[in-house]
């Protein structure tokens, strides 16, 4: 059935000009555009000048569809344009006083004006310093121009307001608007923008005189566009305007929530503008189920259906990737049925993230597609290089930015050189300011010598970087004109051959058929050049700092986007509804119909909030729609999306996003299902014999499902021969890497095989002897695999120049050792230290020890110097506490940093394993205190810890905490047969902030710090020895703040203490030696299981906490045949020694 050509043939007199204007109303997909095309063809055949105006983003699609409608005949004398392109064409031959500024130009001018007039602003003064302010202000001024609001009108509206934030805000905006117009008038001699110029110059354009004009694809018009339409109607022979609206229900569109509310507003405005306008309606050319669905579902109250609509499917998928895979599979089936790629369109609400997923999945299925998403240029190496320069120069040569620049491959450095320099910079602590000095580096970390060699190699790279960056150093100096800054940067990119390298990348991409990549290289080069050019043309004489120049350039680049056109006509189109609402296709997939995605949930943005916009509207100053109105308009977008299809419509949604977060279906999905229009299907992505044809659409795509099929075969189940055929095909057609990856994944398990005897001997033994520290055995017990990674493979994290926990431990040990040794040399006990002497000693010894730290890190900058001062404060508090403890103790220091198991040291522990391996334990005891009493030597082992450290009996028995007791065993063996354990404790070297319920006094503060630093460990259950150890335990007192011990009035120790009698101590020492033997035996047997320990009263402690090897072992308790925890239990001391009580204490391991 032919569709009639509808246009107005009634001529009216308005303003002295004869105008023929008609409005064509029709529902979506009723044939309005086809009407336009046929009328245009008839007019062109008669030699008439023909113009079709469509939304700017729809010009390419309109040209393509019009060309197709002519069935290969082509067209001349017919123009298809958007308002912006038409304005440029008209103004090119006009008076020349039109101001043509793109978005960057406007932001640049507004940014400069905001800086210049900053003192005059009030509430917006702080916002003007924010990076996005210029863009927001530009959008608002553009909005004002679109609605016919000039600076004077805005200012007068502000004056009429009562005092308040809105009045000040309008005052600030109107001032900026006014200065913007003044700048345009001064710089260009006019304030006319493109659409204003089009409205004023249209009648002087030769082509528009007597032309036949069709305006199609718009949902509404701004007042400025209305002025353009009026001007075009004056000079045109005929003007036809189409609007998407149900002509039979105009009265119902007046409501704010009406489906066609915006189109109705445009209709009313056109009727007011052209009182004698002729209104015609386009009816559907023929009945179709999709058109009936459109009328029924989008009526004011959706009708109920007895049966699902033919031609519509609604499918739920688990994830967005599976959703797009479903779409790809359906497209492949359609192609087999004879459909063309160009017949298919994929529509989403917004481009992200479906643009990226569609390109990835469609490529896997061999489906060419074009996405009209305008990807930002910020990820291109050239833009990355330019933005990195800003950070380098104005963050004192920030290291991260410098290496981002070097990794763009635009400078003459190999990737190996960049990696080596980055590793060196991190390990040696090269501070940003060092790069600004033409001085060679002098420090080489030991770990980098094998890879980087000597410093000459590193310094050669440094010198090359310095000479490349040196021309940019003026950016850090005084102010210059924008013209000078642009010249310096342009010359630098030329001298470093960035531009020529970018051109060679473009040529290489073109030669290899990567046309999209080649166009990207070309566009980014032109864009940077254009930005610099416009900066010079608009504000070239402005004196600004180098930082301001770089900020302006970076802001321009951040808003730059790639604009690509389809490389071929026969391809799938992927678009968002706000860009592709003019498109029509036989088959449409509407993806992402999830709540919050489609429809979008709007919030307030811009300079004015919704309340302020509505207030101005009531004052006669209408602006763009608020968030409430935009929310109502989401239903209209859904209407457009569901009416783009001529034959088949697929609606899809997912249950989870890429991060695994749950998604809900859109409320419209529920309405479609509940009213009977569709039956919701579920695509699980699981292949069965019945549905495999839906998934196995081609061999390449089927590889995605091969792992799940082969997993069934691995489990002993019979699988269809098609999977083995696919497996063979992949091996023979270049997909062997994929097949091997699939196989490796199927048979992968996160279990480590035992090491052979030969490997054990080569890695850990020497002459059948395992020689190591107690820490080695503790590490093995915590996790055998982590032990293997550290001590066997010797894996280490990348060295960084920092002062971490191990460095702190080393430093405090060194300082405490030096202080103790000095006292021993002088023959003085700790109790004789004075407060001022303690401060002096700690400061001097810390300075000395800090000077020996890596590259003198604690003196490298203010941050590390502050750390050093905190270390001094911590040491002062610790030494004072040790001094105070010593004042009430009869024990004296016997040894400091006492080594054992090495030549000239104490004799170490050794034992033989059943397999013939000898174990020798070596190490160093931080401090040994002794007391001679009744002919016996009582021993106190003290181990300094800079972390939160405690000890419980289950940790000892399980082999996690052997250190204190093995140190005690060593001391007993070296101090004679009369040596008796008195205690083994950890001394915390920390200065944590203490929390109090109220403001404490000085004495309360001191008590809180003493309690926090209390010794933690085990003691001998002997009140005489305990009294000699700590006189604060005397009868009648509270528990000692130093040891936590308390002697009852009857002379016995309080039961709530970690105390054991002498016999129990000896049994405990034997128990610890047995635990050490057990760990050593498992180690030498080759067991390196991924079997991390968990322990504590609630198993709260895990060996995996802070483990650097997690990415290597991939510990997973949920996987099939996966890993498991080594629960070490929570034995009480009653399980081992019934009469002994232990205080259970938790905490985080500190630094040994």
Give keywords.
Rossmann fold; seven-stranded mixed β-sheet; 1152 residues; alpha/beta; disordered N terminus; P-loop_NTPase; seven-stranded parallel β-sheet
Helix percent reads 40-55%
Briefly note the CATH topology name of the domain at 381-562: PCRA, domain 4
% residues in beta strands: 5-15%
Q: Which word captures the global form?
A: elongated
> Which secondary-structure class do the elements indicate?
alpha/beta
Q: Kindly, what is the distance between the CA atoms of the first and last residues, rounded to a whole number of angstroms?
A: 90 Å
Under CATH at level 1, the class of the domain at 381-562 stands as Mainly Alpha
Compute the CA-based radius of gyration.
Answer: 40 Å
CATH architecture of the domain at 381-562: Orthogonal Bundle
Q: Helical region count?
A: 44
Output mean pLDDT.
83
Residue windows where pLDDT falls under 50 for at least 5 positions = 1-18, 1136-1152
Write down how many β-strands occur, each being a DSSP E stretch of 2 or more residues: 28
Topology overview:
Layout: E1 11-14, E2 17-26, H1 32-45, E3 50-53, H2 59-69, E4 78-81, H3 83-92, H4 103-116, H5 133-146, H6 151-160, H7 165-188, H8 194-201, E5 212-215, H9 223-235, E6 238-244, H10 261-273, E7 278-281, H11 289-297, E8 312-319, H12 320-336, E9 344-348, H13 354-364, E10 369-371, H14 381-394, H15 399-406, H16 415-428, H17 449-452, H18 455-469, E11 480-481, H19 482-495, H20 498-511, H21 515-539, E12 543-544, H22 546-558, E13 572-576, H23 577-580, E14 585-590, H24 610-618, H25 627-642, E15 645-656, H26 667-674, E16 680-683, H27 692-695, H28 699-702, H29 706-714, H30 721-732, H31 736-746, H32 757-763, E17 769-772, H33 774-782, H34 784-792, H35 805-826, H36 835-851, H37 862-887, E18 892-900, E19 909-912, E20 918-921, E21 923-933, E22 936-945, H38 953-957, H39 963-974, E23 979-988, H40 1002-1012, E24 1016-1020, H41 1023-1029, E25 1059-1060, H42 1062-1084, E26 1093-1095, E27 1101-1102, H43 1110-1113, E28 1126-1127, H44 1133-1136
Helix pairs in contact: 3-8, 4-5, 4-7, 4-21, 6-7, 8-9, 12-13, 14-15, 14-22, 19-21, 20-21, 29-31, 30-31, 33-34, 33-42, 35-36, 36-37, 39-42
């Amino acid at each position: 059935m032919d569709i009639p050509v509808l246009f107005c043939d009634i001529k009216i007199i308005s303003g002295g000009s004869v105008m023929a204007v008609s409005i064509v109303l029709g529902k979506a997909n009723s044939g309005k555009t086809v009407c336009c095309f046929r009328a245009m063809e008839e007019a062109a055949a008669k030699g008439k000048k023909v113009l079709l105006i469509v939304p700017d983003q729809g010009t390419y699609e309109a040209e393509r569809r019009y060309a197709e409608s002519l069935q290969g005949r082509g067209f001349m004398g017919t123009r298809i344009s958007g308002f912006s392109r038409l304005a440029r064409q008209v103004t090119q031959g006009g008076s020349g006083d039109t101001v043509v500024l793109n978005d960057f130009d406007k932001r640049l001018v507004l940014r400069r004006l905001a800086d210049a007039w900053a003192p005059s602003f009030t509430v917006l003064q702080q916002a003007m310093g924010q990076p996005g302010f210029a863009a927001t202000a530009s959008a608002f001024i553009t909005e004002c121009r679109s609605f016919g609001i000039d600076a004077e009108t805005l200012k007068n509206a502000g004056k009429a307001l009562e005092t308040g934030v809105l009045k000040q805000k309008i005052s600030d905006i109107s001032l900026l608007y006014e200065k913007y117009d003044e700048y345009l008038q001064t710089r260009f001699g006019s304030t006319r923008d493109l659409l204003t110029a089009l409205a004023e110059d249209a009648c002087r354009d030769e082509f528009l005189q007597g032309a036949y004009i069709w305006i199609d694809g718009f949902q509404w018009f701004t007042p400025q566009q209305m002025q353009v339409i009026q001007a075009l109607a004056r000079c045109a022979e005929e003007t036809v305007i189409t609007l998407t609206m149900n002509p039979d229900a105009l009265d119902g569109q007046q409501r704010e929530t009406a489906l066609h509310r915006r189109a109705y507003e445009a209709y009313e405005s056109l009727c007011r503008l052209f009182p004698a306008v002729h209104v015609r309606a386009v009816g559907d050319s023929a009945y179709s189920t999709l058109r009936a669905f459109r009328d029924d579902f989008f009526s004011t109250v959706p009708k109920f259906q007895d049966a699902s609509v033919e031609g519509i499917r609604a499918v739920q998928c688990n994830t967005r990737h599976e959703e797009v895979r479903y779409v790809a599979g359906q497209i492949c089936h359609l192609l087999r049925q004879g459909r063309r790629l160009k017949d298919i369109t994929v529509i989403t609400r917004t481009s992200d993230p479906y643009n990226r997923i569609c390109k990835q999945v469609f490529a896997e299925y061999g489906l060419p597609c074009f996405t009209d998403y305008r990807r930002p240029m910020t990820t291109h190496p050239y833009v990355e290089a330019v933005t990195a320069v800003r950070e380098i120069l104005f963050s004192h040569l920030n290291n991260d930015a410098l290496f981002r620049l070097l990794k763009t491959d635009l400078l003459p450095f190999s990737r190996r050189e960049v990696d080596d320099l980055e590793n060196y910079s991190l390990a040696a602590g090269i501070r940003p300011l060092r790069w600004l000095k033409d001085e060679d580096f002098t420090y080489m970390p030991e770990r980098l010598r094998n890879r980087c060699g000597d410093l000459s190699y590193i310094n050669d790279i440094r010198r090359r970087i310095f000479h490349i960056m040196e021309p940019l150093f003026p950016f850090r100096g005084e102010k210059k004109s924008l013209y000078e800054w642009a010249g310096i940067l342009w010359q630098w990119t030329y001298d470093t051959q960035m531009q020529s390298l970018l051109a060679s990348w473009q040529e290489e991409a073109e030669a290899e058929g990567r046309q999209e990549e080649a166009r990207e290289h070309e566009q980014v080069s032109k864009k940077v050049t254009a930005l610099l050019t416009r900066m010079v043309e608009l504000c070239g004489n402005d004196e600004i700092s180098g930082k301001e120049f770089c900020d302006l350039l970076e802001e321009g680049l951040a808003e730059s986007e790639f604009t690509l056109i389809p490389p071929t006509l026969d391809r799938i189109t992927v678009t968002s509804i706000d860009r592709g609402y003019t498109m029509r296709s036989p088959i449409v997939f509407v993806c992402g119909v999830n709540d919050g995605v489609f429809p979008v949930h709007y919030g307030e943005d811009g300079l004015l909030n919704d309340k302020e916009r509505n207030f101005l509207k009531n004052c006669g100053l209408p602006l763009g729609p608020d968030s409430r109105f935009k929310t109502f308009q989401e239903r209209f977008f859904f209407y457009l999306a569901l009416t783009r299809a001529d034959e088949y419509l697929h609606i899809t949604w997912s249950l989870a996003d890429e991060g695994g977060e749950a998604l809900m279906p859109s409320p419209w999905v529920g309405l479609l299902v509940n009213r009977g229009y569709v039956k919701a299907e579920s695509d699980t992505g699981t292949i069965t014999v019945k549905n495999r044809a839906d998934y196995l659409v081609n061999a390449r795509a089927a590889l995605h499902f091969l792992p799940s099929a082969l997993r069934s075969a691995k489990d002993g189940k019979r699988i269809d021969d098609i999977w083995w055929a696919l497996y063979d095909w992949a091996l023979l057609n270049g997909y062997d890497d994929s097949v091997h990856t699939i196989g490796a994944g199927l048979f992968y398990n996160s279990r480590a095989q035992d090491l052979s005897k030969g490997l054990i001997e080569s890695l850990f033994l020497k002459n059948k002897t395992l020689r190591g520290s107690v820490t080695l055995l503790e590490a093995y017990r915590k996790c055998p695999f982590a032990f293997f990674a550290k001590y066997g493979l010797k894996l280490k994290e990348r060295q960084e120049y920092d002062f971490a926990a191990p460095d702190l431990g080393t430093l405090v040990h060194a300082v405490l050792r030096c202080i103790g040794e000095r006292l021993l040399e002088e023959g003085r006990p700790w109790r004789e230290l004075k407060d001022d002497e303690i401060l002096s000693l700690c400061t001097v010894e810390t300075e000395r020890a800090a000077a020996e730290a890596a590259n003198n890190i604690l003196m490298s900058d203010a941050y590390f110097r502050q750390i050093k001062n905190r270390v001094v404060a911590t040491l002062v508090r610790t030494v004072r506490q040790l001094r105070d403890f010593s004042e009430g103790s009869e024990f004296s220091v016997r040894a400091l940093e006492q080594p054992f198991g090495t030549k000239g040291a104490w004799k170490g522990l050794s034992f033989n394993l059943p397999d013939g391996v000898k174990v020798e334990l070596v190490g160093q005891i931080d401090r040994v205190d002794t007391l001679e009493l009744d002919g016996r030597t009582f021993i106190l082992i003290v181990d300094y810890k800079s972390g939160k450290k405690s000890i419980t009996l289950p940790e000892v028995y399980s082999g996690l905490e052997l250190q204190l007791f093995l140190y005690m065993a060593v001391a007993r063996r070296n101090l004679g047969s009369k040596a008796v354990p008195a205690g083994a404790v950890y001394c915390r070297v920390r200065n944590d902030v203490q929390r109090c319920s109220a403001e404490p006094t000085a004495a309360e503060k001191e008590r809180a710090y003493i309690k926090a630093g209390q010794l933690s460990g085990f003691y001998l259950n002997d009140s005489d020895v305990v009294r000699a150890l700590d006189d604060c335990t005397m009868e009648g007192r509270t528990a000692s703040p130093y040891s936590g011990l308390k002697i009852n009035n009857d002379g016995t120790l309080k039961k709530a203490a970690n105390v054991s009698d002498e016999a129990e101590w000896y049994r405990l020492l034997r128990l610890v030696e047995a635990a050490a033997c057990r760990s050593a035996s498992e180690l030498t047997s080759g067991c390196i299981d991924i079997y991390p320990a968990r322990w504590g009263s609630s198993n709260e402690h895990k060996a995996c906490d802070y483990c650097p090897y997690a990415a290597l072992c991939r510990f997973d308790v949920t996987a099939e045949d996966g890993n498991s925890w080594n629960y070490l239990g929570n034995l009480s001391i009653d399980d081992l020694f019934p009469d002994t009580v232990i205080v259970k204490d938790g905490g985080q391991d500190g630094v040994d």
